[in-house]
Amino acid sequence: MPKVGMEPIRRQQLIKATMAAIDEVGLADATVMRIARHAGVSAGIISHYFGGKDGLLEATMRQILWDLGEAVAARRRELTTRNPRDHLGAIIDGNFDGSQVTGPVAKTWLAFWASSMHEPELARLQQVNDRRLYANLCHQFRRLMPRDEARACARALAALIDGLWLRGALTREGLDSDEARRLARDYLERLLDTRDTSSPS
């Protein structure tokens, strides 16, 4: 009989093992047996908790997405102002949080993006993530400008965040999160400054 409270611990153990296996050999070769070895458990445990590799990958991405949401929320909670510029900066910083840029997490993100083109449930998770980023950005931009402009700025900044993340993750050195944040914040200031100078006085 399993010990009380072991399920959450075991699930986290298996999620970390999944990321480690993907980091080591890629998604295709991250077999249930390899993941189980990383976790120090039997392969049957994975089937018991997740129903197999697909369920485990979904759970792993849900955890990474939750971590991302928390990274953004934590930065916004630290703010002492409601200034939209500050909240947009916090959203940028959260998207390049350390929890999202390590080797195992970065490679799991890349595997997730590739798999989401073929797996409906992963595609749904990707859409949820995209909508969350866009909605958060759009809400803050809307406090500074008309709706159509806010939507355009939100789309542009979201695309830049994703692009910086993807290009950085694909480099041999890995993502330089400080540089990515700086570039994204510079672009944000250009968006806002351009609008300020073009607005009628």
Automatic annotation (TrEMBL):
Residues 31-50 bind DNA. PROSITE patterns: HTH_TETR_1, HTH_TETR_2. Pathway: Amine and polyamine biosynthesis; betaine biosynthesis via choline pathway [regulation]. GO terms for molecular function: DNA-binding transcription factor activity; transcription cis-regulatory region binding. Residues 8-68 form the HTH tetR-type domain. GO terms for biological process: glycine betaine biosynthetic process from choline; negative regulation of DNA-templated transcription. Signal peptide: none annotated. SUPFAM superfamilies: Homeodomain-like, Tetracyclin repressor-like, C-terminal domain. Keywords: DNA-binding, Repressor, Transcription, Transcription regulation. It comes from the Bacteria. PANTHER family: HTH-TYPE TRANSCRIPTIONAL REGULATOR BETI (PTHR30055:SF234), HTH-TYPE TRANSCRIPTIONAL REGULATOR RUTR (PTHR30055). Repressor involved in choline regulation of the bet genes. This is HTH-type transcriptional regulator BetI. It comes from Halomonas lysinitropha. The gene is betI.
